[in-house]
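pasting for the record
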Amino acid sequence: MGIIWALLSVVRVSAAQLTLRHAMLLLPPAASPELFLQHLLHAAPGTLPLFVGLLGYLASMVCWYFALHRLPLFRAYALLSFSYILVWCAAIALPGWHEPFSWRALLGVVVIVAGVMMIFTPPKRR
């Protein structure tokens, strides 16, 4: 059950990251705090995705809480690395995001998957 909670956390945090990225494209830069705050107070475009993304992070932390009660930290944290893969794939696949594909990044994804598999492979008994 701990793996399920950890994977739910990964999916939620990945969705939250993508939602926050969308919000940042719509909102003015935070470098001008008065303009940024004005947009938030008037519920301008980007405000809803910002709050949905932040709530997604909160939901992810709730799942993470339950995952940590049921899994050793080294295993739970290894599963968290799947978030990098999900966000990378979604940023390339989603229309309008225009994130470039890179063979080097794909190699990084393969290394992450191999690392997680190494962590979850039970040790051989002697």
